[in-house]
Design goal:
ribonuclease H; RNA-DNA hybrid ribonuclease activity; two-stranded parallel ribbon; 7 helices; single chain; 146 residues; mainly alpha; elongated
Amino acid sequence: MLVSIACSGQKFKIYSDNQAGLYRLKTPSDHPGQAYQIRAIKAAEVIKAKGAEISLNWVPGHTSVEGNELADKLAKEATTIRPISNETSFGLLGMIVKECASDQWLDTLNQYELRSKPNPINLLEAISMENWLEIKLPSGTNRKYC
């Protein structure tokens, strides 16, 4: 939106109470949301190329800063709107791959638990002492010494 109205000499100040979001705009990353991050960075570059100035400013949240509560409300509403783009980022793809790998690992673990052998200690409880001695003592051993 600012890209279409920006002209030389204008100054745009963007305020946010989200320090992490402001930081991400200054330092590109490959985390989820990368496509939006790149889009915002490119828009800022176009605005600067037109000769306008743009600044990102942090304001404390929930401290009655004029307009901040309305901005929070609008941001929450925006999260319910379906995206108009089908673009994705490497960060989101990486997150999906990790989730699939984790699901496969858990499935494998659950299958192992279903077919695993009973605990040997429980088997010992099921064997009588007489049978246990027969198992442990070599044949021909006199039991009266045991």
